[in-house]
């Protein structure tokens, strides 16, 4: 399995998340994935709830299509994600026994990793396990079905299962809000380093930290702290990659040019800090064109104009932050 594929000489692999519906339905959608990407990953199709809307069957078809298409193009693919607090099926919420929850978790990881073994360069083993506001009463980990049923040990359980099931895939711990300036972000970076250290102390393999990189035009990147974070991980033998880069722009007033300029500044600052720490394994955006982005649905602009979170505009033309990349 190519470790996140072959970038252009001197570069790091660039990738983007891909969505099944436009892949099937929009004839223009696939082209930039072929021309721009060393790597693609199914944005949603490997999430627990989409893979297993019912308990008995795994719905591997859509992710198989996307992954095999990428491999046929000579690209790498990666998996997102085994453990997440969101997008879980109702039947999983109804599993209340600890021992049964553990069996479900291990079985899910084993069967899914086994199905894709040899085809995925890496897996997000756990996604967003750090508390939104760590340091508050709830402790360092975020509330989830897995934390409620199994406690913090669901994290090492998941890493151990993934390592057994796919020894060739790099195992990633993925999270958000790890790049900005301020106490809350310092705490989140510290919690991430703690979790990785604890996994290593217990002899679990964790190959890399994924920084999602959902940036905000109005938040300041802490380049120094981000670089230090990368160096600290490197000293622990742990890699780093940007996994879900995009820009949330609801706070920016002005026209499309002003929005795009603000985005290219924050992306540039982010990449400067990232590359100053250790060479990232990959830089991956959460889509390519503004035509398809979760940001428009979840954090729309207040002036009613469309969000512009990604490197290409809705017509597929590269924007200022494409140049920053
Ligand atoms: C989002 C997708 O982009 C949407 O299409 C979906 O409806 C919800 O999930 N952090 C993550 C991603 O780890 O999985 C989320 O993706 C965005 C935030």
Automatic annotation (TrEMBL):
GO MF annotation, one: endo-1,4-beta-xylanase activity
GH10 domain: residues covered: 1-325
SUPFAM superfamilies the record matches: (Trans)glycosidases
Signal keyword on record: yes
GO biological process: xylan catabolic process
Keyword annotations: Carbohydrate metabolism, Glycosidase, Hydrolase, Polysaccharide degradation, Signal, Xylan degradation
Enzyme class: hydrolase
Family label: Belongs to the glycosyl hydrolase 10 (cellulase F) family.
The name this protein goes by in its record: Beta-xylanase
Lineage: Bacteria, Pseudomonadati, Pseudomonadota, Alphaproteobacteria, Hyphomicrobiales
């Amino acid at each position: 399995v190519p470790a996140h594929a072959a970038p252009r000489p001197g570069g790091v692999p660039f990738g983007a998340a891909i969505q099944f519906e436009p892949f099937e339905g929009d004839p223009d959608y696939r082209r930039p994935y072929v021309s721009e990407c060393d790597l693609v990953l199914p944005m949603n199709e490997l999430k627990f709830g989409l893979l297993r809307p019912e308990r008995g069957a795994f719905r591997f078809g859509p992710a198989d299509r996307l992954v095999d298409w990428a491999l046929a193009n000579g690209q790498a693919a990666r998996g997102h994600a085994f453990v997440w607090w969101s997008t879980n099926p109702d039947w999983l919420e109804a599993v209340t026994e600890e021992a049964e929850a553990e069996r479900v978790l291990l079985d899910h990881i084993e069967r899914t990793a086994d199905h894709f073994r040899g085809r995925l360069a890496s897996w997000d083993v756990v996604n967003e396990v750090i508390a939104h506001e760590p340091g508050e009463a709830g402790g360092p980990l975020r509330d989830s079905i897995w934390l409620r049923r199994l406690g913090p040990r669901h994290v090492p359980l998941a890493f151990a299962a993934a390592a057994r099931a796919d020894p060739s895939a790099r195992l990633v711990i993925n999270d958000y809000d790890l790049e900005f300036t301020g106490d809350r972000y310092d705490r989140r970076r510290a919690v991430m380093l703690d979790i990785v250290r604890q996994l290593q102390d217990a002899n679990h393999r964790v190959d890399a930290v994924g920084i999602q990189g959902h940036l905000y035009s109005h938040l300041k990147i802490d380049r120094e702290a981000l670089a230090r974070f990368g160096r600290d991980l490197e000293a622990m033998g742990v890699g780093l990659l940007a996994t879900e880069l995009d820009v949330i722009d609801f706070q920016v007033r002005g026209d499309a040019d002003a929005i795009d300029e603000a985005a290219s500044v924050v992306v540039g600052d982010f990449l400067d800090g990232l590359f100053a720490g250790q060479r990232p394994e990959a830089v991956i955006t959460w889509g390519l064109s503004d035509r398809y982005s979760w940001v428009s649905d979840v954090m729309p602009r207040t002036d009613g104009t469309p969000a512009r979170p990604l490197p290409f505009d809705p017509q597929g033309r590269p924007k200022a932050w494409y140049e920053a990349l």
